[in-house]
Automatic annotation (TrEMBL):
Gene3D superfamilies: P-loop containing nucleotide triphosphate hydrolases. This is Nodulation factor ABC transporter ATP-binding protein NodI. It is found in: Cell membrane. Coiled coil: none annotated. It comes from Rhizobium leguminosarum. GO terms for cellular component: plasma membrane.
Length: 343
């Protein structure tokens, strides 16, 4: 038994280092930031004027947003927009230079340890212990939250079921597929029944089946009243799951709202994607009937309230492929974050 405890302690330490979770000695980080916004906040998460710079360059710049209890809030933005930095600051793992952060009414970083006890985290890159089994990974993570062995044993079956890993409990993590590892990471984040989940690109790199399975699991968590902060590059994921979104570029908020509202405000008409011709020539041709035209690589995107007219203008042009569709969040993302506007 002692041997096993030693092993678990060693694994917990490895896991702590890998997951970058602060150890006990780091947990009384003093709060040098601003007023006690948290003590007044009924929000699950609230950021006010948060700024972080590296080497003199702001990577998060005066950012404010609020996430209500039970809400799924999405953070979107191109690579390097500052999404992961924001999640780390909410967890108290990266200190902001200015601004206030509160989590369930607790100030971060001052009360980060208490706040973290109520948060489940799926970080951008898997940090499972590859040499240990699925069950052992759940076990050591539970120990990090000071759960007793019998408490962990009591929840492991439901977590395995949640992750659909019942048959893999004694498999080494190194032998799991990428989707299984991601599901295990999500299940592990639930071990202490957190109120808030912070998920940094939880389905990147997964096949469509695995992705749909995780979406379904996340919806079930929302139905149980959990609050989710989700960062993603998968626009379908954001559109399906998020109640509200914040779009970032260069650490600055450039849009915030409900997915449907953002699509209506930013696009608001059908889209025709046109492939197979010379985009510049086609642009001149259809310009009179387009509200906006954008060219991305070999594809021309025509935003038009009158798709029939555009189709009529293109009739007779050989080799063109046209795809007419409703506008979506990807159009919003590309518009806001820099697909070159042509009109
Ligand atoms: N520890 C660090 N030291 C220096 N620069 C950093 C550090 N962490 C992040 N950055 C920089 O901050 C910026 C934001 O990085 P961050 O990881 O938050 O972006 P992101 O939006 O999560 O990007 P991605 O979509 O690629 O995951 C980047 O320019 C990055 O290089
Ligand atoms: Mg990131």
């Amino acid at each position: 038994m002692n041997g096993q405890s030693d092993l678990q302690a060693a694994v917990a330490e490895t896991l702590r280092r890998q997951s970058n979770l602060p150890g006990r000695q780091c947990l009384s980080v003093s709060d040098g930031f601003g007023s006690p916004l948290g003590s007044m906040s009924s929000m699950a998460v609230e950021l006010a004027g948060v700024t972080k710079s590296y080497q003199g360059k702001a990577v998060v710049d005066g950012l404010s947003f609020k996430i209500a209890p039970g809400e799924c809030f999405g953070l979107l933005g191109p690579n390097g927009a500052g999404k992961s930095t924001i999640t780390r600051m909410i967890l108290g793992m990266t200190l902001p230079d200015a601004g206030n952060i509160s989590v369930l009414g607790m100030q971060v970083p001052g009360q980060a340890r208490s706040a973290r006890a109520r948060i489940g985290v799926v970080s951008q890159f898997d940090n499972l212990d590859m040499e240990f089994t699925v069950r052992e990974n759940l076990f050591v993570y539970g120990r990090y939250f000071r759960m007793k062995a019998r408490e962990i044993e009591a929840v492991v079956p439901s977590l395995l079921e949640f992750a659909r890993l019942e048959t893999k409990a004694d498999t080494r993590v190194a032998d799991l597929s990428g989707g299984m590892k991601r599901r295990l990471t999500l299940a592990r984040a639930l071990i202490n029944d957190p109120q808030i989940l912070i998920l940094d690109e939880p389905t990147t790199g997964l096949d469509p089946h695995a992705r749909h399975l995780i979406w379904e699991r996340l919806r079930s968590l929302l139905a149980r009243g959990k609050t989710i902060l989700l960062t993603t590059h998968i626009m379908e994921e954001a559109e399906r799951l998020c109640d509200r979104l914040c779009v970032l570029e260069g650490g600055v908020k450039i849009a915030e709202g409900r997915p449907f509202d953002l699509i209506e405000e930013q696009i608001g008409c059908p889209v025709i994607e046109i492939y197979g011709g010379n985009p510049q020539e086609l642009r001149l041709l259809i310009k009179p009937n387009a509200r906006r035209i954008e060219i991305s690589g070999e594809t021309l995107f025509c935003y038009t309230p009158d798709p029939e007219q555009v189709r009529a203008q293109l009739r007779g042009h050989r080799g063109l492929r046209l795809l007419e569709r409703p506008p979506n969040l990807e159009d919003v993302f590309l518009r806001l974050t820099g697909r070159e506007m042509e009109k």
